[in-house]
Design goal:
3 domains; Rossmann fold; 25% strand; eight-stranded parallel beta sheet; 386 residues; ornithine cyclodeaminase, domain 1; single chain
Length: 386
């Protein structure tokens, strides 16, 4: 199925309706009409088109067909187009900067966004999250399913879709696979925070967890710090060994050994009990805690949260969603957006810092906008002949 906008005419003066068109119904005459119009009219390079692949008359109506931006297309965009910087695969300086800017705008009150509405379908097994946001540059909505029970089945635990709209007219711009965007923006946010808070001399990275977020953070964090050693631990040892072999890391048998002497630590698990203890950390370490996304789940113990400087993406969100913050009753020093905006001072050097991330819609919309802009740059190129 292709996403099809029915337009009043081929110059896209006005969108009238959203319809679906079976691609097998597009005839050769239909495609020939598209190519003729594409060569003749630069008006087809419209900012609302992610990727035009057909245009013409079908059942007496004019149609513009738009490609759905699926996960495979997103990977191609992020790997091959302008989001790539100095050989980075998916996590570029541009994306990290965009996440810092989005969080600064959020903490400065320039984003309209409610706390995620999480529907519990089956406790500990099935959830559906609804995440709308309106920023100065774009607006949109992410729908995300969180199914911890999918672990080990070959089906991802997180699946999502993102809808992107224009803020001035309300016109839909794109529909995107949200799983990869969630993966990349989470790690890019951690990279922005690590760049701001971790010691510039950080050399040892410890990953607690070996799934997609561990891999995403491995890729993202090495863009902002030069790690000479990477350790990985998982509750399933064979997963840690597989990760280590793939990425040139060292698999360790227990979490305490993984974090001993580490400068930067990532916790990326679905643990319901603490897996990281403050007593294990050296002074001045920085922790990115991105897992345990439920109000009764924990990754961090009370000793760590009571002794470290705690920063979060959203005060309101973590006090509703993060068991680490809720159950420990830890004091929140700042939202990271306040640090990025200069509204709060950076914690003193030498203090252990913890960034608790639950993920907010403003991050998704900012990341989706970058993908959309990269795609439309290609769509705006002149169309060659058949």
């Amino acid at each position: 199925m292709g996403i099809v906008y029915k337009a009043r005419d081929v110059r896209l003066e006005r969108f009238l309706a959203l319809k679906f068109l079976k691609l097998e119904l597009v005839t050769e005459d239909f495609r020939r009409c598209f190519l003729q119009e594409a060569r003749a009219s630069s008006a087809l390079h419209h900012p609302n088109i992610v990727h035009v692949y057909d245009i013409g008359v079908f059942e007496g109506q004019d149609y513009i067909a738009m490609e759905f931006v699926d996960g495979q297309s997103l990977r191609q965009i992020l790997r091959e187009r302008r989001l790539s910087v100095a050989g980075a695969v998916r996590y570029s300086v541009q994306l990290t900067d965009a996440m810092a800017a989005a969080l600064a705008a959020f903490s400065s009150g320039r984003v309209l966004q409610p706390v995620r509405n999480m529907l519990t379908i089956e406790e500990s097994k099935r959830y559906l999250g609804i995440m709308p946001a309106v920023t100065e540059e774009a607006m949109g909505l992410k729908l995300v399913s969180f199914y911890p029970g999918n672990a080990g089945t070959g089906v991802p635990t997180h699946l999502a879709m993102i809808l992107l709209f224009r803020t001035d007219t309300g016109e839909p711009l794109a529909v995107m696979d949200g799983r990869l965007i969630t993966e990349m923006r989470t790690a890019a946010v951690s990279a922005a925070v690590t760049r701001h808070l971790a010691s510039p001399d950080s050399r040892v990275l410890a990953l607690l967890g070996s799934g997609v977020q561990a891999e995403a953070h491995f890729e993202a964090l090495r863009r902002v710090r030069r790690f000479g050693e990477v350790r990985v631990w998982s509750r399933t040892p064979e997963h840690a060994h597989r990760f280590a072999e793939k990425h040139g890391a060292t698999a360790v048998a227990d979490a305490a050994s993984a974090v001993h002497g580490a400068d930067v630590i990532v916790t990326a698990t679905s643990s319901q009990q603490p897996i990281l203890r403050g007593a294990w950390l050296k002074p001045g370490a920085h922790v990115n805690a991105v897992g345990a996304p439920r109000p009764t789940w924990r990754e961090l113990d009370d000793a760590l949260l009571s002794s470290a400087v705690l920063v979060v993406d959203s005060r309101e969100a973590v006090l509703k969603e993060s068991g680490d913050v809720i159950l420990s009753k830890a004091s929140i020093y700042a939202e990271v957006g306040e640090l990025f905006a200069g509204a709060k001072a950076k914690p003193p050097d030498g203090r252990t810092t913890v960034f608790k991330s639950v993920g907010i819609a403003a991050e998704d919309i900012a990341a989706a906008r970058l993908v959309y802009e990269a795609a439309t740059r290609d769509a705006a190129k002149p169309v060659s002949g058949p």
